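Escalated from tier 1: 4'-deoxy-4'-aminopyridoxal-5'-phosphate holo job.
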Amino acid sequence: MSTPKPKDWIMGIAPYVPGKSSGDDGKKLVKLSANENPLGCSPEATAALNAASAFVDRYPDPGSTKLREAIAAKYDLDPARIICGTGSDEVLHLAANAFSGPGDEIIYVRYGFAVYDIAARRYGGTPVIADDKDYGTDVDAILAKVNDQTRVVFIANPNNPTGTFSSREEIARLQAELPGHVLLVLDGAYAEYLVADEDDGALGLAETKANVLVTRTFSKIHGLAAERIGWGYASAEIIDAMNRIRLPFNVTTAGQQAALAALAADDFVAASRKHNAKWRQWLSEECSALGNHGLRVIPSHTNFLLVLFEGEVTAEQANAALLDKGYAVRWLPGQGLVNGLRMTIGTELETRGLAKALREILADAG
Ligand code: PMP
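Tier 2 regenerated the structure:
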């Protein structure tokens, strides 16, 4: 008997593996595996979420109008050129969907964000991987992969899972040297963790260049990961193409209102950035002090640290031992990152506990 057959390219997709929050035995773990905000979300966003329960029987505003206007006011953008998505994940998928298909090539960097691979393959495109430069984005390696079939380049800046950052000059050079037919997606999921003079100029490029899409999210510094709210900014033509295929009611009313409140919660964002900078520095020093055990920290511009295990204890072993001690971090062999663990910066207690667990694991190993 014949059965429905998925497209070959769909079956070629390795399913996304989310960060763990409980062990195989169901035991609750300290979750430092998904780059969430350890401080939660702002009181303003919580109040908005509670108030939104009054509107559950009505469809949300399909155009996320007020939210787009508030984003535009905050970043000095044109609201008509903003698209809101079910997380920035949706905006990334919409970009791949609108601008690539079978026979087309989509470039991203080795150790890039896992969703780029899924988005590329989902529409029948061919992923093309550009080599990294000591875990960072290598603009020349990307440019070397561009050809007539290239349709999209995905870059996260700062990058996940490496935490590395490419300068404004490097990003501008990439845009300038890419052919006009290639859509450059600059994913700024962690942009709010940058200090002011680290701005990579992405929004400015999207303002003036016809082939740049910037994506941002409310899941990270705003602490609204469960609500699934992201946005993109690009030319009117790019946004129009993506709007034609996005689901009409893709951001919930609660999500729109929580995001609106979050945008105004500057104190919470500043406190989150400060907390992150302090404990990232602390964890980085703790891990660097374990350099005699082969630990190497990749300098991070995000709310997580990538720690390489180049000594006797492998990343896989350290990951298993951390799980035993109740800590979930992220080992990413599926992304080719066999020798590293990505550790989200948690609360003070969580971060101190993680460092202690790591010290014990390495000491036990001799
Ligand atoms: N881009 C990058 C680089 C990310 O790390 C993430 C979250 N892991 C996303 C996009 C997607 O975030 P969201 O869909 O929650 O907006």
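The mean pLDDT is 96.
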